[in-house]
């Protein structure tokens, strides 16, 4: 029988990372997030989440508070996982570089230094390695390196690992070692043809929310209904006829957000599912064929959440939970390599 490894999931959200790790036998002893609805969702799905989850602010989380929450000493923790909210590093964000959300990375580092897991995993946007985020990454390298961790980083593209989505995220893994040897290795792309939007959601076209949870689409305004009917599969707002273009679009034809007001392509992986994928105006989130945005469930499918995983909250709250999650299948690929590193048996 495989040894069970204990993990803590920080900024767990609805639990994409947790699902991936639990799928290969990890035991989540504690998960937390500041988003109340996300924690409700986490606890609402005991088939996939077996450990306790709490609404907590990381600024107030420490080893003692964790032990008070769960009612016992946590002992040695094998792995700490987490994706500190990353909007402050996003290359699409405008404004001052000093975004207070960036400090959540520093708090994550503080917690790692206190808990001293054998290994940690941090997921974030590529902007963490841009000029805006690099000082925080360098701080992590210094602090965790001084504490005896070997740090590796890699940008993983979800579609390389069976996820029907072009989603690129940075994964940073640190392993505590006494002899300086490196054991962890990132998963390599499967080499198989990428999964497509058609693979993920075509069978949902004639389903309703009564058939499957969260299968609900955004109601389009009359104007946006005209816009979605004017664009074909795979097209974006640059294909809109002149009378349906936005005022800002007419003024600035070089604006970078050309994916807004667009439809997905059936036979390509989907675009990155964001926290506002429920809105036609926020990206290429129109259904390839039907005159609507993709539904919440279709977004969850593209993120590789199981169909019986039910999200709680309003449409906007659920979209945020889905869009902010690490795709469970990608998390599982990373978890398999973490397990190998710790001396467990891979489930590949």
Question: Main attributes?
Answer:
single chain; alpha/beta; 348 residues
Strand order of the largest sheet: 3-2-1-4-5-7-6
Shape category: globular
Instruction: Encode the helix/strand succession as letters.
Output: EHEHEHEHEHEEHHHHHH
Largest sheet: 7 strands, mixed
Describe the structure.
The chain has 348 residues and is an alpha/beta fold. The chain contains eleven helices and seven strands. The chain has helices at residues 16-23, 36-44, 63-70, 103-115, 134-146, 197-201, 222-230, 247-251, 296-302, 315-324, 328-342, and strands at residues 6-10, 27-33, 53-55, 79-82, 119-124, 149-157, 168-176. The protein has a seven-stranded mixed beta sheet, with helices on both faces. It is globular, with a radius of gyration of 21 Å. The relative contact order is 0.16.
Strands, helices and their partners?
Blueprint: E1 6-10, H1 16-23, E2 27-33, H2 36-44, E3 53-55, H3 63-70, E4 79-82, H4 103-115, E5 119-124, H5 134-146, E6 149-157, E7 168-176, H6 197-201, H7 222-230, H8 247-251, H9 296-302, H10 315-324, H11 328-342
Parallel strand pairs: 1-2, 1-4, 2-3, 4-5
Antiparallel strand pairs: 5-7, 6-7
Helix pairs in contact: 1-11, 4-5
Question: What would you say about this model in short?
Answer:
The protein is an alpha/beta fold.
């Amino acid at each position: 029988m495989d040894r069970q490894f204990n993990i803590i999931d920080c900024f767990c959200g609805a639990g994409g990372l947790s699902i991936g790790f639990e799928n290969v036998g990890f035991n989540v002893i504690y998960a937390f997030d500041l988003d109340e609805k996300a924690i409700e969702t986490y606890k609402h799905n005991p088939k996939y989440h077996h450990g306790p989850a709490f609404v907590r602010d990381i600024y107030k989380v420490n080893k003692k508070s964790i032990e008070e929450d769960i009612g016992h000493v946590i002992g040695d923790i094998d792995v700490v996982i987490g994706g500190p909210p990353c909007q402050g590093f996003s290359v699409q964000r405008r404004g001052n570089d000093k975004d207070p959300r960036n400090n959540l990375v520093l708090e994550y580092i503080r917690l790692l230094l206190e808990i001293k897991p054998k290994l940690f995993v941090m997921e974030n946007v590529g902007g963490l390695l841009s000029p805006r985020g690099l000082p925080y990454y360098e701080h992590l390298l210094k602090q965790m390196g001084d504490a005896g961790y070997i740090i590796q980083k890699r940008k993983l593209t979800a579609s390389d690992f069976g996820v029907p989505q072009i989603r690129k995220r940075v994964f940073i893994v640190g392993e505590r070692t006494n002899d300086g040897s490196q054991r962890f290795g990132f998963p390599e792309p499967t080499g198989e043809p990428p999964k497509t939007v058609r693979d993920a959601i075509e069978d949902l076209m004639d389903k309703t929310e009564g058939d499957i949870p969260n299968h609900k689409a955004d109601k389009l305004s009359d104007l946006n209904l005209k816009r979605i009917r004017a664009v074909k599969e795979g097209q974006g707002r640059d294909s809109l006829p002149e009378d349906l273009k936005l005022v800002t679009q007419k003024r600035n034809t070089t604006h970078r957000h050309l994916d807004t007001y667009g439809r997905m392509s059936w036979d390509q992986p989907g675009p990155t599912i964001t926290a506002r994928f429920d809105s036609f105006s926020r990206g290429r989130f129109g259904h390839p064929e039907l005159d609507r945005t993709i539904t919440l469930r279709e977004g969850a499918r593209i993120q590789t959440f199981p169909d019986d995983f039910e999200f709680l909250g309003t449409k906007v709250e659920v979209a945020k939970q889905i869009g902010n999650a690490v795709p469970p299948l990608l998390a599982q690929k990373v978890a398999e390599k973490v397990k190998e590193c710790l001396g467990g048996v891979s489930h590949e």
